[in-house]
Structure formats: C-alpha cells, structure tokens
Amino acid sequence: MTKAIYAVKIFMFRHQLDLPAREGGGLRRLCLFISLAYVKQWNEAMVSNRAPLNDLEFLRLLEAYPDKEVSHTASTALKRHLWYLSEDLVGLGFLDDRIPKDTKLKMVQRLQSPATKKGPKRFDPRNFNPQQPIELFVTRRRTKRSLLPRNTSRIGVSHLPQERSSGLDQ
C-alpha cells in the first residue's frame, strides 16, 4: 500500500513534475485502479473470515473492470494467491456474516456429502471461474478436518446449522 499511496501522491502533484505523457497516462491508470478497486480489498485484508468471499468478489470485479490490461495483470497476480479458496480455508466463510444463511446451509450440505480422494489442493488459475458460488469450494475431504480441533476424529458436524422448518417462516 505504501507504493500505492506514493503513486497517488505523484499523480496529485503531476503538474509540478516534468512527467512524460506516457508515464502520466500509466500513473493515471494505476491510480484509477487503486481508488476504484484495490483500496477496499486492502482495507478488508486483515479480516481473515472475509478472505474467501473477498477474493471471489475481487476477481469478479476485475473481470468487469473497464481497463482490460490492468484487469488482466491484477487478476493474474491474484490468481497466484488463491489459497484462501483452498479446501482448508474456505471454511472461514462459515464465520462471514455477509454470506447468507441459505448459502451457509449449502456449504454444510457439501461438507456432509461423500468424501472424494482426488482434487487439487490449490486451484489451477487457468481453469478458475470466479463466477462459481462459494459453496462449490467446500468439500468434505479437507474442510471438515480443518474446521475441527486436532485429535477429534469422533466429532461430527451436528453442531453446524441444519435446515429445519420451524413453522415460523410461513
């Protein structure tokens, strides 16, 4: 973020500097990206339980970003760091208050589905689709273990929310 702030300051005082037109244009594009896309993500980076959804939303924003060259460069860099969407860490989404209850219930259903033995530990950036809903990243193979304390092989997932009809929803 230090470099981003420095770039914004240079852009603000660009008329007092002798910047070539090419550098001024590049600096403008960088500052637009910083202010329109990056600042929100940087501010939320410290909240770990929001990381899985933040990464998906940021990749979606980058796909729609108007400057395609900047979008491609930023999304390529971010896709190298998709470990927040790994099977182990996507479980943090259960603690994210922005994820609706029905989505969390789908995440629990995926957690209770039969385990698979294969599947990548990390996503392949070339085949990654950020439009997928977050519940598709939950699998029983790893997430259930990562949600529970160590040496608790007999603990089930009964403490996780279940879909129940209370009769009050009607």
Question: How would you portray this structure in words?
Answer:
Residues 111-132, 145-170 are annotated as: Disordered. The structure is a single chain. The protein has helices at residues 2-12, 21-44, 51-64, 68-79, 101-112, 143-147. By secondary structure, it is mainly α. The chain folds into two domains: 1-46, no CATH class; 47-161, no CATH class. Helix 1 packs across helix 2 and helix 3 runs antiparallel to helix 4 (68-79).
Any key phrases for this structure?
170 residues, mainly alpha, 2 domains
Give the DSSP E fraction (strand runs of 2 or more residues): under 5%
Q: Tell me about the biggest sheet? A: none
Q: What class would the helix/strand composition place it in?
A: mainly alpha
Number of strands: 0
Low-confidence stretches: none
Order of helices and strands: HHHHHH
Helix residue percentage: 40-55%
The pLDDT mean sits at 80
Query: What's the Cα radius of gyration?
Result: 21 Å
Question: In total, how many domains does the architecture comprise?
Answer: 2
Q: How many angstroms separate the termini?
A: 49 Å
The rough form would be described as: elongated
- Count of DSSP-assigned helices: 6
Summarize the SSE layout with pairings.
Elements lengths: L1 H11 L8 H24 L6 H14 L3 H12 L21 H12 L30 H5 L23
Helix pairs in contact: 1-2, 3-4
Summarize the structure in short.
Residues 111-132, 145-170 are annotated as: Disordered. The protein has helices spanning 2-12, 21-44, 51-64, 68-79, 101-112, 143-147.
